[in-house]
């Protein structure tokens, strides 16, 4: 009962109730005006206009179809829901900031770093050069050598290394995470940040307000600022109708002095390091890079920071934050960001490139498997062509509806030879791609619509190096505690489960 009362009194529930009340009031007001003036057709006409607008957008067909069906069946409600959760149109202020966001690429470039992929074209194969050129061209993310990388198959292993490196900070610390939550993980880091501020270190923290809505109090950034930490809440959630709820910051990165960076799937909360348990064992991953390759993450952070931070926290030049230490060469790396502020799906296309160019195998782990037709076709074509395609998903759900939807996507994959495994000990949150002992992508990008279309995301492509073999080892070890889902198992589902699966697939882009 205490937990229930605490949940009902949470900021998320209270905010949701306020929004629902306002939506109900707006809905009833529109209905009243329609009846009062005999404009019953108004909602349908408006719905058609919105549907044609959606059709004109350059989005995945499934994404557009789901919203159009909702609006056609429930015009007024559907339009309101679309404006809240599906509308990518930005306000004038956001447009101005977005233009500035893009301008930062040119204004704050560090010319001492190689820009042209041809400088390492004799090292990478043709397919790798194509991938790196594509990613570089869209996100200004360069390929670096002189960078070391260490892989952590669990958040538990990443945690002590992060603490150790934060203690060494001399110049600046940048932290950007979807979720912060008080506990051993965050409280240990916070004490270090407070101490570093006193030592004159420039400490900046950015958290997503929706991601942390259940884990941090409202206006938590003010408390952090009282310690001398420059802190911002990304896209704050208000207890009112807000047609700008999209564009969440789903990145996870910690940068120290421009020479060390941590990233992966790990948020700053105790469940990610298995100090608390909610959905069985939490399987996540992370990595630490040192050297020139850290620059891409520093640049991404500062670029987004300039987009959201108040004027007193802005940065005049990015150059002082460039790496000052090069590491021993270990393959090549390319860290990249994906932004909903442009029309390019960099992350999904990077995944597709790896699938389409795999010769022997492509192995994937993802907490959510919500696929559009393009991704489904790529996976099934690769499997049909004899490529060993394996996907690991959770056996224990963190969100039951999304879990049902993930399983609903098994059908066509299994029928075409894709192998699917579920992680029996609990929830697997790691997001990684591995191909042909040659390339790996590790980052924050889920295989779902929100990550591909509506979130700020990040990932790192590893071209060779020992980390690729470490990712493979992790995948094989994880596979030992997974159960394989067979076509026969999947067909044993009841009619109700199949029906619910089909319904879930229909509304998938709305989740």
Strand-helix topology:
Elements: H1 2-8, H2 11-36, H3 42-56, H4 61-73, H5 75-86, H6 92-107, H7 126-139, E1 147-152, H8 155-167, E2 172-177, H9 184-198, E3 202-208, H10 220-226, E4 230-234, E5 248-249, E6 253-256, E7 260-264, E8 281-283, E9 286-291, H11 295-308, E10 332-338, H12 346-357, E11 361-365, H13 373-384, E12 388-394, H14 400-408, H15 410-415, E13 419-423, E14 426-428, E15 431-435, E16 439-443, H16 449-454, E17 455-463, H17 466-479, E18 482-485, H18 487-491, H19 495-507
Parallel strand pairs: 2-3, 3-4, 5-17, 8-14, 11-12, 12-13
Antiparallel strand pairs: 1-9, 2-6, 6-7, 7-9, 10-17, 11-15, 13-18, 15-16, 16-17
Helix pairs in contact: 3-4, 3-5, 4-5, 6-11, 7-12, 8-9, 12-13, 14-19
Task: Write up what this structure looks like.
Helix 8 (155-167) packs parallel to helix 9 (184-198). Helices cover 45% and strands 18% of the residues. It has helices at residues 2-8, 11-36, 42-56, 61-73, 75-86, 92-107, 126-139, 155-167, 184-198, 220-226, 295-308, 346-357, 373-384, 400-408, 410-415, 449-454, 466-479, 487-491, 495-507; strands at residues 147-152, 172-177, 202-208, 230-234, 248-249, 253-256, 260-264, 281-283, 286-291, 332-338, 361-365, 388-394, 419-423, 426-428, 431-435, 439-443, 455-463, 482-485. It is built from 19 helices and 18 strands. The strands form three sheets. Strands 5, 10, 11, 12, 13, 15, 16, 17 and 18 form a nine-stranded mixed sheet that branches. A seven-stranded mixed sheet has the order 1-9-7-6-2-3-4, sandwiched between helices. The chain starts with a helix and ends with a helix. The mean pLDDT is 85. The protein has 511 residues and is α/β, with parallel strands linked by helices. The radius of gyration is 23 Å and the shape is globular.
């Amino acid at each position: 009962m205490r937990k229930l009362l605490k949940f009902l009194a949470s900021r998320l529930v209270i905010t949701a109730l306020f929004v629902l009340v306002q939506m109900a009031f707006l809905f009833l007001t529109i209905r009243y005006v329609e009846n009062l003036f005999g404009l019953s057709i108004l909602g349908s006409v408006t719905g058609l206009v919105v549907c044609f607008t959606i059709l004109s957008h350059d989005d995945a067909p499934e994404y557009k179809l789901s919203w159009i069906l909702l609006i056609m069946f429930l015009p007024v409600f559907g339009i309101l829901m679309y404006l809240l959760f599906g509308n990518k149109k930005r306000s004038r202020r956001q447009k101005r900031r977005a233009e500035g966001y893009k301008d930062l690429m040119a204004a704050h470039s560090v010319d001492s770093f190689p820009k042209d992929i041809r400088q390492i074209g004799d090292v990478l194969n043709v397919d790798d050069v194509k991938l790196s050129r594509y990613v570089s061209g869209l996100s200004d993310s360069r390929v670096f050598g002189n960078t070391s990388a260490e892989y952590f198959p669990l958040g538990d292993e990443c945690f002590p290394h992060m603490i150790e490196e934060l203690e060494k900070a001399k110049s600046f610390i940048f932290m950007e995470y979807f979720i912060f939550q008080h506990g051993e993980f965050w409280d240990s880091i916070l004490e270090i940040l407070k101490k570093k501020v006193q030592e004159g270190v420039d400490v900046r923290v950015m958290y997503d307000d929706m991601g942390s809505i259940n884990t941090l109090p409202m206006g938590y950034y003010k408390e952090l600022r009282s310690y001398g930490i420059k802190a911002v809440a990304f896209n704050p959630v208000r207890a009112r109708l807000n047609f700008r709820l999209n564009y969440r910051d789903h990145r996870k990165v910690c940068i120290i002095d421009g020479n060390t960076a941590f990233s992966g799937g790990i948020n700053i909360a105790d469940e990610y390091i298995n100090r608390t348990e909610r959905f069985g064992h939490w399987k996540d991953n992370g990595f630490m890079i040192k050297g020139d390759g850290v620059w891409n993450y520093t640049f991404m952070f500062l670029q987004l920071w300039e987009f959201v931070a108040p004027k007193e926290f802005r940065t005049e030049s990015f150059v002082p934050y460039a790496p000052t230490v090069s590491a021993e060469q270990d393959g090549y790396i390319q860290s990249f960001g994906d932004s909903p502020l442009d029309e390019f799906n960099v992350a999904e296309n990077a995944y597709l490139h790896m699938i389409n160019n795999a010769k022997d195998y492509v192995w994937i782990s993802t907490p959510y498997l919500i696929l559009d037709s393009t991704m489904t076709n790529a996976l099934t074509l690769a499997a049909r062509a004899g490529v060993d395609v394996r996907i690991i998903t959770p056996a224990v759900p963190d969100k039951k509806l999304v879990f049902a939807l993930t399983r609903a996507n098994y059908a066509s994959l299994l029928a075409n030879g894709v192998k699917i495994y579920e992680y029996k000990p609990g929830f697997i949150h790691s997001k990684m791609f591995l191909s042909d002992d040659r390339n790996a992508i590790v980052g924050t990008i889920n295989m779902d619509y929100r990550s591909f279309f509506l979130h700020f995301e990040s990932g790192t492509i590893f071209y060779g190096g020992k980390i690729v073999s470490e990712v493979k080892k992790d995948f094989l070890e994880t596979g030992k505690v997974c159960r394989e889902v067979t076509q026969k198992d999947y067909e044993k589902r009841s009619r109700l489960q199949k029906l619910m699966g089909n319904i879930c697939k229909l509304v998938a882009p709305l989740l």
